[in-house]
Design a protein that fits this description.
Oligomer: single chain
Order of helices and strands: HHHHHHH
Largest sheet: none
Strand content: under 5%
Structural class: mainly alpha
Number of strands: 0
Number of helices: 7
Shape: rod-shaped
Length: 151
């Protein structure tokens, strides 16, 4: 009897539910769309994170295989120094890896800090490298290279 006293008796009438069906359907559809959008965004973020970690892991393997090159302390002995030629390829590979990481995680400041600390080890080469200073890199990598070169 309380239902009739409070006015909730209208909920027992099938005609009320028939008139509310389009509105309820719309709300359910909006909720489902919002949930789907959220899941897609989470999936994209997880994929980008996994990609960045994979690329950096490959870079670290390259560093372990070439510790003298990874230190950034290598200097050319002569104009025909083959080891220095390998260093320039190592350096280009490093920049390419960093570009891919920054493209997949452009707003992640931790990745930017990590990459900048690695670039600082190679400051000597950054200051003279036409590859590093070509400004053909992803804008965030160009900015990090400029920071390292100018400071």
């Amino acid at each position: 009897m309380t239902c009739f006293e409070t006015g909730f008796a209208v909920l027992l009438d099938i005609k009320t539910w028939e008139s509310w069906t389009p509105i309820l359907s719309l709300l359910v559809a909006i909720g489902a769309l919002g949930t789907a959008y959220y899941q897609v965004q989470i999936g994209r973020s997880a994929t980008a994170t996994a990609q960045a970690h994979n690329i950096y892991q490959q870079y670290l393997v390259l560093c372990m295989e070439n510790t003298d090159l990874a230190s950034g302390q290598y200097r050319p002995i002569s104009s025909t120094d083959e080891r220095y030629a390998r260093y320039t390829w190592f350096f280009s590979n490093m920049l390419f890896a960093f570009e891919q990481i920054l493209e997949s995680k452009p707003t992640d400041d931790k990745w930017k800090s990590t990459i900048k600390s690695q670039l600082e080890k190679h400051k000597y080469h950054i200051q003279k490298s036409t590859t590093a200073n070509s400004t053909h890199w992803f804008k965030d990598l160009d900015a990090l290279i400029k920071d390292v070169r100018d400071y």
